[in-house]
Amino acid sequence: MGILWSSFASGAHAASSMTAAKPTILGSNAVNNFAGAFPTLRVVSTALLLVSSFGGVLLQLALRQLQYGAAWYMTQLALYPVLTKSATAALIGYIGDYMAQWLEYKLEQNHQKGVIGGGSCDGTQQHHKISLNSSNSRVSARSNLSIHGTYDLRRGLSIMTDGLLISGPLMHFGYAFFEHLVPVSTSPLAAMLHVIADSILLDSIFVATTFLVTGLFEGYRWQHLSSHLRSDYSSTLKASWGTSLALMPLEFVCFRYLPVSLRVLAVNFIDVVWDAVISFMVHRKRKSKQVTTESLGTATNDAVLCDEPTLRRPKIEPAFAS
Predict the structure, then answer these.
(1) Looking at the predicted structure, is the pLDDT value of residue 210 above 80?
(2) InterPro entries, per this entry (predicted)?
């Protein structure tokens, strides 16, 4: 009797185990069939896993390098404060000038589109003019660096020189002097006074030195620079004040909550827009004078191309000679 009962129990247990295992087998088959029906899901899921894993590793490496860079910069700032701040001002000034030259390039592109659309010559003569202009543009593109062959490296280096020799050191000593006169820790009004002094006093000096340093570096004579200052200094200074007014909330946060050693760095990053505006304003009249001179020569060539009958009248030649 005991033997029969034990055999019945073992048989029932085996049957129950087979019954319990059946849904699992069916479930795995369903999953396999689903995955087989959609093989792209496996590829996508594997790719997502790889991207997430590699992305996490790359993010950790980037953060680690950023920490190393910040630690190195803080060390240089403690060892060589004036040189580090001056180099920072030079680099950010260069970026601002690049932005200004990019804006000038876009404006000139739009202007050229409007000019090419007009004209009084016929199609053949217009084709000759465009061919001459395109060949000149290809030559200038080979002799320049960037922004589709229009980037002025000499101008960018002049802005860097101004930041390295004048703007950076002046910001270092000027901010320290402001902190000595009115410590920011006393009240928020002190920080606002620092911002106003920076925008009115230091920016007035920066605008003048930008005119002079960039002009001398770019090969202009003193008499040209003096007339340039008299005609364009006030308008450029107004543009400087308007830009500083727009950036004033950010500068207030920098002066209010950052130590003196980091204010030059923070204000330099904010003032990349200010650098772009000042570089654009300083060079726009120089650019317009160059464009006027070149347009006079182009107009003479166009007159020769368009007004062919004048070549057959020798009586006009003495007028050109005189």
Answers:
(1) yes
(2) Mpv17_PMP22
Q: What angle do CA 136, 289, 278 make, to 5 degrees?
A: 105
Let me know: does 86 contact 172? Beta carbons within 8 Å: yes
Choose among 212, 265, 248: nearest CA to 85. 265
Domain boundaries, the chain: 9-79, 80-306
Amino acid at 131: S
Q: Against a cut of 0.90, is the pTM above it?
A: no
Q: Which residues contact 239 (CB under 8 A, 6 or more apart)?
A: 277, 278, 281
Q: How far is it, in rounded angstroms, from Cα 144 to Cα 148?
A: 9
Cα dihedral 206, 208, 209, 212, rounded to 10, equals: 160
Q: For 268, how many CA atoms within 13 A lie in the half-sphere containing its CB?
A: 27
10 Å CB burial of residue 283 (0-12, 13-18, 19+) is buried
**Is 259 a residue whose pLDDT tops 60?**
yes
Show the 3-state SS of the chain.
CHHHHHHHHHHHHHHHHHHHHHHHHHHHHHHHHHHHHCHHHHHHHHHHHHHHHHHHHHHHHHHHHHHHHHHHHHHHHHHCHHHHHHHHHHHHHHHHHHHHHHHHHHHHHHHHHHHHCCCCCCHHHHHHHHHHHHHHHHHHHHHCCCCCCCCCHHHHHHHHHHHHHHHHHHHHHHHHHHHHHCCHHHCHHHHHHHHHHHHHHHHHHHHHHHHHHHHHHCCCCHHHHHHHHHHHHHHHHHHHHHHHHHHHHHHHHHHHHCCHHHHHHHHHHHCHHHHHHHHHHHHHHHHHHHHHHHHHHHHHHHHHHHCHHHHHCHHHHHHHHC
Length of the chain (residues): 322
